[in-house]
Structure formats: C-alpha cells, structure tokens
Amino acid sequence: MKRKALQALAAVAVLGGLVAGHGAQAAGDLFIYNWTDYTSPDLIKKFEQESGIKVTLDTYDSNETLLAKLKSGSSGYDIVVVSSDFVPIFAKEGVIQKIDAPKLAGYANIMDRWKSPVWDKDNQYTIPYDWGVTSYSVNTKQVKAPADSLKLLFEPPPEAKGKIGMFGSPSEVMSLAEVYLGMTPCQTDVANMKKVSELLEGQAPFVKVYNSDGIIDRQSSGETWIHEVWNGDSARARVNNPDIKFVFPKEGVVGWMDNVAVPTSAKDPENAKKFIEFLLKPENSGLSSNFTHYASAVTGADAYFDANMKDAPELKVPADEKIAFTPACPEEATKLMDRVWTKLKK
Amino acid sequence: MAAQPRFRDRALLLAGPALLTIVIFMVLPMAIALVYSFMTASPYGGVEKPYTAGAYVRFVYDRDLDDSLVFDTTYLQIFARSLILAALTSLGCLLIGLPMAWYVATRRPVQRQILVLLVTIPFWTNLLIRTYCWVLLLRDQGLVNNVLLWLGLTKAPITFLYSDGAVLLGLIYSSLPFMVLPIYGALEKMDPRLVEAAYDLYADRWAIMRKLVWPLAKPGVAAGNLLVFVPALGAFLQPDILGGGKKLMIGSLIQQQFTTGRNWAFGAALSMILMAFVLGAMMWSAWRRAAIAVPV
Fold first, then answer.
1. Pairing state between β B69-71 and B61-63
2. pTM across the whole model
3. Does A346 contact chain B (CB < 8 Å)?
4. pLDDT tens for residues B64-113?
5. Which DSSP letter does residue A155 get?
6. Which fold has domain A132-255+318-344?
7. Which of A109-118, A243-252, B41-50, B100-109 is the least confident region?
8. Residue of B62, B65, B78, B162 to mutate, interface with A, max A Cβ within 10 Å
9. Given CB atoms, is B79 within the 8 Å cutoff of chain A?
10. Residue in chain A nearest B246 by alpha carbon
11. What residue ranges do the domains of chain A occupy?
12. Measuring CA to CA, which residue among A331, A346, A63 is closest to residue B72?
C-alpha cells in the first residue's frame, strides 16, 4: 500500500515538474539578484501569476560583491539592484546595459524629483527601487536637549556620554559628518578632512559603539540613546519603543536610492523590462515597500501602504529637507577616509 | 636496495593528499597574498600593475601634505595593542587551563572522557553566535546586570561591554579549549606513582606543582600557547562585537583594507607582516627550546 502511494506521489511529482517546466518555457525565466531581505515574496508571487514568468531570486550583501560577480561576465542575472553611489561605476565598467527607461510603460509614474537623477541622467540605465535617508534617532525620554541639529549627535551634551552609537562603516559616518560641517561629500581637500577628523575624535569619548548591525535592538532597549540610523530601521525601533524619534536635522541628511538595472550579461532582457514595467505600477511598488519598510519613488504607491507604513513619521521627509546623495568616492577620497578612520581607532 | 625506492614511492603516495591540501589551501593563498602585497590597489577593490613596495613603506611612513614621507606609528600602535592582548589571552588561558587540565587528568578514565567531551562542546556552536551571546549577557540590560541589580550589589547597570576587558574576556573564552586540551594531553600520560613518590619524599603541594606537574605540562603549555596566541593575534570578531569597534586590532585593520578601505595591496602587506611576526615568534620559541635541550 505504502509503496503504491509513493509511486503515485512520484508520478505526480514528475508530471508536475513537466507541466511547470512547460509553463516556464512558454513565458521564460527571470533571474533576480537583490540585497538580502529586500525582495517582497508577495511581489514575486504576483509577478509570476500575472506574467507566467518563473522567477529565481538570489541575494548579496554589498555593492562590491555584485560588481565582482557581474565583472566575471557570466552571472546569468536579468535584474540587479544597485545603490545610487555605485550606478555610475557599474555603467562605466559596462556591466549594466541601457534600458532607455523613459520609453517604458509607467515611466511617468516615477515622482518628478526622482526622474533623471544625478547618478543616471535621463534614466538611461536604471529606475528607482526604494529610497531612504541617513540621520540619527534619539530616545526622547532620556535626552531632553532639543533634537533639531546634527550637533546633538556629533557634539553631544555631557549627560549622553557613553550612550552614542555610530555606524561601523567609515564612509557612512564621514558623509554625515561632512553634511554637519557643510562640506560636499567625498572630500579630497586635506584641510577639510582634518576638520572631519577633529570632529570625530572629539565625539569618540562619547561613543559607546561603532556598529551598523543591531541598531534597532540597541535603540529599543535603551542601551544607546542617540544613534546614527537609516529612517526605515528607526521606524522599526519606534514600533518596539515609542520614545524613539527620527530626527530631520536642519543641516540636512544623507540620502540613498537603490536602483533596478539590467546586467549586460542578462539572458532575457525582454523579461527584465517586463518586470521593470511591473514595478513601476503603484500597487506593485507599494506592495514591495510594505516588505522593505522604505519609501517608494512611484507616485501613488503610498495609497497601497499598510497602516503602519502610512503613518510612519520617519518616511515623511520634509519637502525642504536638504538631502545629500553621496556619490561613490574616488580613490583619493577613500584613502583619506581610511586614514581618518584608522587614526580615530588607533 | 630494491625495496628502498618502492618504499619511498609508497610513502610519497600516502603523503600526497596531505601535501596537496597544504599546497592548495595554504601555500597557494599565501603566495597570492605575497604577490598582491607588491602590487598597486585598484580603485574599486582588487589589484593591478605596476609592482611596488609602497604598501610596506606605508606601514611605517605616512605621506605628508607636501608628499614627503614622515615616520608614523599608527600601525605600529595597532600591532602593539594586538600583541599585548594576544599575550594576555595566552596568560589568562594558562592560568585557568593548567588547573583545569590537571583536574581532568587526575579523574578516573570514565570521568575524564566525559570532562574532555564537555571541554569540546563549545565547538558545536558557531563562534559568532557564542560571541554574540556574551553581548546579551554583558550589556546594560543583560543577564549579569539584572542579577547584580536584583541582588542589590549595584544601584545602576555597570557598562561591561565595549571595553578592552570585554574583548579579553571573549578571547580567553573562545581560546580556552585550545589551551586545556594540549596540556591535558601532556599530563594524561603522567604516571600517578610519581606524585606518591614525591609525597614520600616530603614534597608539599606547591613543590609537586612546581617540580613535577609544571615540567611535565611544559610541552603541552608550549603547544597551547601557540594555538591560543596566533589566532588571538589575528582575531577581528571579538574586538568588533565585544569591543564595539572602537579600537582597531591587526585583524580588523586587515579586514578594513579588503572591504571599505578598498586597498587590497595594503591588506595583503599587513597579512604578510603579521605572518612574519608569528613565524619569528615560533622560530624564537623553537630555538629557545633547542638551546635548553642541548646542555641536558
């Protein structure tokens, strides 16, 4: 009996495989390569149902990994997600292809402020995926000083000594410091970098930890009172602890955008374009944001946000807030940052 | 005569897999790192030509504003801190590990087996997870502080984490088995009648420890020291997680060069310098042992 049941099961599995295989052949495959924890499963399911295309997802943890993989030439991915600072590098290295986004259906849905961004003039290579800003969050129960400036983070009051948390990545710490000091990002001016160095060394005795992981946990539990943070993470910390407030400082914030691109080595660029057009529909972009907790660049996507996303003050960036989009720094600037960072921790 | 070459062939064949493993997983990567250390860093990671010794020069000299070279102790300071911390780790492991190994070695055989198994249990869990557990224990709202507060021993949480002490604790914790096991291996072979004989000759406990146990444990201590000191020197997990990333160690400095610093050549050069340090220390200890052995 048992053996028969097994045989039947095997037959069904084989048949199912054949049918599925056939279905995939009809509309083809799509291989997506995205950041870890950054692709909504519901979104993929919806796309597969609507298009009949079979999606395979693979993930990575840094732009450098993505670049190395694409440079090897035979990655086989059709869709990749690249941070704004790396888009010009990817284009220059020739690993992503022109998609001429303005000609795609739904291009008009992109908010005007995100059309033709500095990292991709006329959207030749990419369309926006999600965007966010870097600033800091503060525990309003512990810190009574007014939180409206980056001064609270970089030159904290004495009572906050040993309660400050910063990112573990030198470029992210220094780009926010450059915003505070009113400098342009990626400084190659040695005198200016000396000022950055002095600021960070003055802040160091107040800092409890330099680490980009576990921020939500540290802020929720009160282990740190003031912490450099991305707005999406700050929203998640607030859900645990209502005293956590994300600050939009008067000096401005650092911004970043993740962008959808098609690798030069893509097997099926047509399917990739279908997926991009799918993403440009507000209902789909909203679905994606509900998973990632970051803001969409598509007009009307917010109508499809979950209630906790709709009300999140962290995602409501004031219209007059200055957002500095950090480009990928040239070698000279990276070297200076590395020296400042090493000196800070020697 | 005829058997000699055949025997040699067989020996080579048997040693083949081990040799191959050493070449592929040790010699080859080291050779690649050595070549990389003499190349120029590419702007986005990786290396390119021309060949240069610039990465090594950078270790002790910093380029000033006018491009002249000035002596710079930043990297030497980081190396010194790592060396001190690794030495303290070895010392701490020895102080805990020697009595522990002695205790295990003097139990009955069945008990010994169970105790040795217990020593190896931490290896069943990933080091990252074990290190992170220390964060959960030591943080301000962690178990240790909660117990202290509950007992009324402190009024406010004590900040244990993100200090050199926490890093040292993490290093000692993770390296302790590497000290206990070799010492146990050395002491296990000891004839228990030696202790009885010593007692018969009116030796007190301290004298037995000093004149009997210590000399017998010494080969194990030497092996344990090496197994603890060398990995502790290159550790970057504990300094990063328990030290809060506030001070750089050699390990974290090398890691930084291969990631955010995007300077693979300098990272490779630092690895080579670290290896030279370790080799030097090993050769020195081997030479010392040989020097002691000769007069006897």
1. antiparallel
2. 0.80
3. yes
4. 555 667 788 889 999 999 999 999 999 999 999 999 999 999 999 999 99
5. S
6. D-Maltodextrin-Binding Protein; domain 2 (3.40.190)
7. B41-50
8. B162
9. no
10. A345
11. 25-130+257-314, 132-255+318-344
12. A346
A188, A342, A343, best to mutate vs chain B, most B CBs in 10 Å: A342
Give the pLDDT confidence score for residue B294 in this predicted structure: 57
Residue B292: what pLDDT?
Answer: 67
Nearest-Cα residue of chain A relative to residue B249: A346
The alpha-helical segments, DSSP class H, found in chain A are 2-27, 41-51, 63-71, 87-92, 151-154, 170-180, 190-203, 215-221, 231-240, 269-279, 282-292, 307-310, 331-344
Beta bridge partners of A324: A254
pLDDT at residue A3 greater than cutoff 50: no
For the domain made up of B73-262, give the CATH fold.
MetI-like fold (1.10.3720)
Does CATH number 3.40.50.300 belong to domain A25-130+257-314?
no
The pLDDT tens digits for A215-266 are 888 999 899 999 999 998 898 899 899 999 999 999 999 999 999 999 999 9
DSSP string, chain B: --HHHHHHHHHHHHHHHHHHHHIIIIIHHHHHHHHHHTSEEPTTSSEESSP-SHHHHHHHEEE-TTS-EEE--HHHHHHHHHHHHHHHHHHHHHHHHHHHHHHHHTS-HHHHHHHHHHHHGGGGS-HHHHHHHHHHHHSTTSHHHHHHHHHTS-SS----SSSHHHHHHHHHHHHHHHHHHHHHHHHHTS-THHHHHHHHTT--HHHHIIIIIHHHHHHHHHHHHHHHHHHHHH--HHHHHTSTT-S--HHHHHHHHHTTT--HHHHHHHHHHHHHHHHHHHHHHHHHHHHHHTT-
Mutate to test the interface with A, among B40, B42, B44 (most CBs of A within 10 A): B44
B246 touches chain A (CB under 8 A): yes
Confidence check: pLDDT of B236 > 90: no
Residue B45 Cα, gap to closest chain A Cα (Å)? 8
Cβ atoms A81, A129 nearer than 8 A: yes
Question: In this complex, do B44 and A210 lie within 8 Å of one another by their Cβ atoms?
Answer: no
Same fold for the domain at A25-130+257-314 and the one at A132-255+318-344?
yes
CB within 8 Å: A345 and B245: yes
